[in-house]
Amino acid sequence: MMGQTRHAGWAGVLSAFALILAAAPASALEFQTAEENQVLRPHVGDQILRYIEAEQEGLWLDAANGYTSLLEEGRLQPFEEATVLQLRGRVFYELEQPQRAVEDWRRAIDLGALGVDADNTLRLNAGQLLIGEADYGGGTHMIETALALGAPLSADIAMRMAQAYGQMEDYASGLRFARQAFDLADNRRQNHYSLLLFYFENLGMEGDQLALIVDMVERWPEEKRYWSRWAALLGRQDRVEEAFNVNVIMYNNGLLSENDELIRLVQYYAFNGYPYRAADIMSREINSGRIEETPDHLRMLASYWRQAREWDRALPVLHRVATTTGFGPDYEALGEALYQRAEYAEAEVMFEQALEQGNIRRPGDTMTLIGNARYEQHDFVGAIDAFERALSWEYSRATAQGWIDFIERRIAIIRRGEELVHVTAIERCEIWLEAERRSVPTDETEFTDDNRRVFELPSECGTYFNRLGERLPDWQGFL
Questions:
Q1: What Å distances lie between residue 46 and 23, 55, 60, 294, 357, CA to CA?
Q2: Which is nearest to 135 in space by CA: 101, 112, 108?
Q3: Closest CA to 191 of 230, 154, 159, 214
Q4: Tens of pLDDT along 294-336?
Q5: What is the tens place of the pLDDT at every residue in 374-422?
Q6: How far is CA 376 from CA 345, 394, 457, in A?
Q7: What phi and psi values does residue 412 have, to the nearest 5 degrees?
Q8: How many CB atoms lie under 10 A from the CB of residue 267?
Q9: Would the pTM count as exceeding 0.70?
Q10: How far are the Cα atoms of 93, 113, 264 from residue 104, in angstroms, in the given order?
């Protein structure tokens, strides 16, 4: 929390003590800091030396008690008191009592006897401790004060400040520290990028986000999360095709393996006009088990095959869904696929099953489809019956009536055509009979008992006339 080692914040104070101790005899101890006129009296220095030696032996409680006794004597000069508070605060830190450490350092700073640089060192250390204790406001205030008074900003301090402001959701204040942590880092790691990206995202700086995430992808191409964030950011900017391409690269490089990721990929393919590829991938991944075989996913797969007009592939999927769920709309989808394959009788059965199962969004349209299937089977009467039932719904009424009118016209045309065939045949037969009547009978000509002539009719005339040349009852008034 306080740098690379637990002693990092004490380089300015303890190193000065160490140098003086090495150069001076004990009888003439005089501790002097970088500030002239700031000295420790020999008897105070002797005691401090003993407590520093206790620290070096790990006797932290002994050192703390010693510093406390010095302070309680009440005979210290301001510089001496500040120095002891500074040292006792460090001991409290080693004893994992951060609040007491900060208290001592604040008291030392308030004495104003150590000098600006030493005070700033204490402010920086205290600020970091407060941030570590989740007192983000107090910690950032201490560090901001030190910086304002000339303390140099390190990459580590900048990182801690950015993290603290992020915890307070004060993104405007924290952004400059996130940038400085990034710029000052000797060896940028992922946490430097992630922190800066965090600020860009929360401040809506999408251009900066995009540039940074692309850099992250280039540095750590194996990190799927960076690719995913890149694709998501492109999607939010409506750069759908670019987002799609990023997902394709991820899939081709084995970075997509989860159900939701693969579903998103096939949806991208379909959205960009590649339903066949979407269905092909989805089918393969369902078989592999990486996409769950749920009714919704099977419906999606069938939809993609249908969009690609691959009815042979859509049908078994639709059949599996319909028979598994028993859901009306699933039977309707199966019926539509069968209809597209010209399997009209089977399609009619599925449409009827859909209506029976219920939950159809527009039953009038389904009834119209039944009429269409019957029409294709030349069941015109059955088709009209279905279309007449479809008249019950306003949204399907116009279409159904149009089909009824169309079929009735066709029936009338067919009937007129059939009548013309019969009229022509009857006329040919009458011409034949007239010719036969005028011909001279021969020995083989037959007559009835009442002397009426019997004719050997051509096969087509037997439909309309009896052997006496008389029109059969069904065709009496035909002409």
A1: 15, 14, 18, 80, 97
A2: 101
A3: 159
A4: 999 999 999 999 899 888 899 999 998 998 888 999 999 999 9
A5: 999 999 999 999 999 999 999 999 999 999 999 999 888 887 887 788 8
A6: 9, 24, 39
A7: -60, -40
A8: 16
A9: no
A10: 10, 14, 57
